[in-house]
Amino acid sequence: MLLLAVAASARAQDIEPRSFSNAPVGVNFLIVGYAFTRGGLSFDPAVPVTNPQVRTSNAVLAYSRVFDLAGMSAKVDAIAPFTWLSGTANFKGESVQREVDGLGDARFRVSVNFFGAPAMSLQEFASYKQDLIVGGSLQVSVPVGQYDPTRLVNLGTNRWFFKPELGVSKALGPLTLEFMPSVTVYTANTNFFDGNTRTQDPIYSLQGHAIYNLGSGIWISEDVTYFTGGSTAINGVPNNDLQRNWRFGATISFPLDARHSIRLYGSHGAFARTNDNYDLVGIDFQIRFGGGL
Fold first, then answer.
1. Per-residue confidence (pLDDT) for residue 17, from 0 to 100
2. Which of 79, 220, 273, 285 has its CA 20 to 30 A from that of 201?
3. Domain span holding position 243
4. pLDDT greater than 60 at residue 236
5. d(CA 100, CA 95)
């Protein structure tokens, strides 16, 4: 039970190790998390401001459940963030300031392991050994976050996004290597900054993780992600904001007992074409229940 994987991420980023690992059917995960960011806008780096000096404190509540889908292990999760933001940025040569708090956009995801991670009970899972896992997921962002069309910087984005992702995870003894390509597709924001229409091209990304199991349920991960695309247009007029960004991070998770664990993580923007890098640190507290635990 100490080796159960984290099934949902309570973090304000897209560097997420062990997204496609297996877990027993019927197990629920409740996560309470906190993340702090400094620098650019982690939730919408394509907002047309320069030199952002923004700090955010993010409280996140997440829930996930493992279920059986035609013999395959599957998960459904929901994430609801609440954010406090303050900082400055430049817009058209002038400094603007923003302080705001409220709900961010909620996210929902369904993931399925197609190969290498069958649906199992807790008793069957006790003898499970991972080899190669191949899975896929679809995440949807729902525009319920705080949004003011008279402001450039908001906690919500006033648009939907859809993110299909493929996951490949290979265990090599205590080391697990993961690769996760994805694409994020956005709907238009038809009420962007005083009634303009803002569109954004898809963002293509690739995550990589090297995860090492230290035993007793403790694991560490070195994380990297690259994403490109995401050029925006206002009323059909394109902006010069193509994204080509690298982020590096690390994660450590350790159990408190059979039902509770803590995860610490951080990441750094190593390079961003649009100079909107940010640093992030966070902590998750996870409770597992159900499924025979």
1. 87
2. 79
3. 28-289
4. yes
5. 17
